[in-house]
Amino acid sequence: MSFYDYLHKYASRDTSVRAALRKSLREKLGQDVSVFKIVEPFVGNGWQRDSYYLAAQIFSLLYVNGSSKGKDSFVKALKDQSASRPTIEKKFEDLLKSDDLELFQRKIIDITRLLSTPVDIDQLLTDIKKWESPNSRKKVKIKWAKEFWS
Fold first, then answer.
1. DSSP code, position 91
2. Mean pLDDT of 63-75
3. CATH (domain of 24)
4. Contact call for residues 76 and 23 (beta carbons, < 8 A)
5. pTM (2 d.p.)
6. Structurally, how many domains does the chain consist of?
């Protein structure tokens, strides 16, 4: 089961899940005890637990009408909406400049709030996990830049 499917199933059964995840936006990643029961069973002993918490927070922001699963990548959704929202490009540039996960969290949450369409959460989680490694982060930045500006 993918992380998105897990979150969707959990949120469908328990309406407080989204509220708890949204509340966790005010805390440092992985520090809000109220969301441990939501994220930790899926993460297990994974060293990339902050990535899962961040993906879960993004899920909570994009969960609309019972679904937050989109077929488009996060970057394609940003690109598609950038024509009508000029601030998206500047925020995207700022996002690409962030090198630590805490700053990246603030930037990606800020830009996610501008999206009005769901994205592929599982693909985004894959990219977020790579952000934790400097070598992989550079590859993700290049991939995202190409997708946004091509």
1. H
2. 70
3. 1.10.520.40
4. no
5. 0.84
6. 1
